[in-house]
Specification:
CATH topology: TIM Barrel
Structural class: alpha/beta
Largest sheet: 8 strands, parallel
CATH architecture: Alpha-Beta Barrel
CATH class: Alpha Beta
CATH superfamily: NADP-dependent oxidoreductase domain
Strand order of the largest sheet: 1-2-3-4-5-6-7-8
Number of helices: 11
Radius of gyration: 18 Å
Strand content: 5-15%
Distance between the termini: 38 Å
Length: 275
């Protein structure tokens, strides 16, 4: 699994999504992250198939949404993702959120892995206790846990727990969607000036040094290329300490343990399973 990949969250236009992935492939990306709920799996798969590059060179991740978190529904959802992507297998397939019939969906994941439909199975947005609960009930331990990690929400304890369990941490929203003027932050910019790099490049290098897989997103080829140009410099310990000092220790989106947020965001999808 490459440590630096390309995400396609919120790229709803199919042609734009396909073009962004095609541009990323030409730049050099080989890890691509999508999800059933992103509604662009087909565009991602089409760009990969039309690239002329052997399928084995790519690492494709997708995710099952909570409206398919049951054993039978998960089996259907896996096949739907495969069909949309137009691929023979998915390299990594994730439970997108830690709610609903996790046990039933995970059993379908394990069977799909055994059948060769999925190479590796994992989760997204799981806290350590939720991850441990799944580990204890599962035959196959999650290979990865994709969580929010950015300079504003560094999640050191969760990252350490994942590492302790032998589970890869993957960061979504590494740039916090630009919140708190992250691309102009003076602390990050000062570090960047030492190496001739942008704030975004410094953030990605900081994550890479922490051993975290990350999947920045852009639809602009120039920015796509800039985000990939992070393998020719290193942050020293002083740089890392400066980056670590930026932690606000708060999600930039919503609290995954707030009952009201869970009801608002996931309630409709979860209730649909009971119909």
């Amino acid at each position: 699994m490459p440590q630096l990949g390309f995400g396609v969250f919120q790229i709803l236009d199919q042609e734009q999504a396909k073009q962004a992935v095609s541009d990323a492939i030409q730049v050099g990306y080989r890890l691509f992250d999508t999800a059933a709920v992103y509604m662009n799996e087909a565009a991602v798969g089409k760009a990969i198939r039309e690239s002329g590059i052997d399928r084995s060179e790519f690492f494709v991740t997708s995710k099952l949404w909570v409206d398919h978190f049951s054993y039978e529904k998960a089996k259907q959802g896996i096949d739907v993702s495969l069909n949309r992507l137009g691929l023979d297998y998915i390299d990594l397939y994730l439970l997108h959120q830690p709610y609903g019939d996790i046990a039933g969906a995970w059993r379908a994941f394990e069977e799909a892995q055994q059948a060769g439909k999925i190479r590796s199975i994992g989760v997204s947005n799981f806290y350590p206790d939720q991850l441990k609960n799944l580990e204890l009930m599962a035959k196959v331990k999650p290979a990865a846990n994709q969580i929010e990690v950015s300079p504003w929400f560094q999640q050191a304890d969760d990252v350490a727990f994942n590492k302790q369990e032998g589970i890869v941490t993957e960061a979504w929203a590494p740039f916090a969607e630009g919140k708190h003027d992250i691309f102009n932050n003076e602390v990050i910019a000062k570090i960047g000036q030492e190496y001739g790099k942008s704030n975004g490049q410094v953030i990605l290098r900081w994550l890479l040094r922490r051993g975290i897989v990350t999947i920045p997103k852009s639809v602009h080829r120039e920015r796509i290329a800039e985000n990939f140009d992070v393998f020719n410099f290193q942050l020293d310990d002083e740089d890392m300490q400066a980056m670590n000092s930026l932690n606000k220790n708060e999600s930039q989106f919503f609290d995954h343990r707030d009952p009201a947020a869970i009801e608002s965001i996931f309630g409709t999808s979860l209730k649909a399973l009971r119909k």
